[in-house]
């Protein structure tokens, strides 16, 4: 089985990574950390830069379990990429990070986390940043 972590270079992404590492290590399961987005937009801060990729890969390399980082920037939304990975891998749990938003912000902007919770076919663990 696989623990899948949806990663962004923000506090909520780091919290999801920490929890994913904790669970995968405790269970002895494979860990896949995914960063995804459509790309092509300069304001898209969900795609991590090369330095951040190296930092995450170095951290994963020190783990006593099989762990890998995958980044997708190919025109699909992060939600579509995560849904495809859940379908392709035997995911025992998907770990996502949550950020605090006002009720109005949730209403106007929608919620990526909510869409993931409603559409993926595996258990989802949502964690808040410390």
What are the defining features of this structure?
5 strands, 42% helix, Rossmann fold, alpha/beta, 5 helices, 130 residues, five-stranded parallel sheet
Q: Would you give an account of this structure?
A:
The chain is α/β, with parallel strands linked by helices. The chain contains 5 helices and 5 strands, in the order βαβαβαβααβ. The chain has one domain (8-77, 86-128): HUPs (Rossmann fold, 3-Layer(aba) Sandwich). The longest helix has 17 residues, at 11-27.
Secondary structure layout:
Blueprint: E1 2-6, H1 11-27, E2 30-37, H2 50-61, E3 67-73, H3 78-88, E4 91-98, H4 103-109, H5 112-119, E5 124-128
What is the H/E order? EHEHEHEHHE
The tally of strands reads 5
Task: Give me the CATH fold name.
Answer: Rossmann fold
General form:
globular
> Could you give the distance between the termini?
27 Å
Total domain units: 1
Strand order of the largest sheet: 3-2-1-4-5
**Poorly predicted ranges:** none
**Major sheet details:** 5 strands, parallel
**In the CATH hierarchy, what is the architecture at level 2?**
3-Layer(aba) Sandwich
Strand content: 25-35%
Question: Number of helix segments?
Answer: 5
What is the name of the CATH class? Alpha Beta
DSSP helix fraction: 40-55%
Give me the secondary-structure category.
Answer: alpha/beta
What Rg is obtained from the alpha carbons, in whole angstroms? 14 Å
Instruction: Provide the CATH superfamily.
Output: HUPs
Q: Round the mean pLDDT to the nearest integer and report it.
A: 88
Organism: Melaminivora alkalimesophila
Domain UspA: 2-128
InterPro entries: Rossmann-like_a/b/a_fold, Universal_stress_UspA, UspA
Protein name: Nucleotide-binding universal stress UspA family protein
């Amino acid at each position: 089985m696989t623990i899948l972590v949806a990663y962004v270079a923000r506090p909520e992404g780091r919290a999801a990574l920490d929890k994913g590492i904790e669970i995968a290590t405790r269970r002895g399961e494979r860990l896949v950390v995914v960063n995804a987005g459509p790309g092509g937009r300069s304001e898209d801060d969900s795609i991590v830069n090369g330095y951040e990729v190296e930092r995450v890969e170095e951290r994963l390399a020190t783990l006593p379990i099989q762990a890998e980082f995958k980044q997708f920037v190919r025109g699909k939304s992060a939600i579509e990429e995560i849904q495809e990975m859940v379908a392709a891998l035997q995911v025992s749990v998907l770990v996502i990070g949550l950020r605090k938003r006002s009720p109005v912000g949730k209403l106007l902007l929608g919620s990526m986390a909510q869409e993931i919770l409603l559409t993926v076919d595996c258990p989802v663990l949502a964690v808040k940043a410390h």
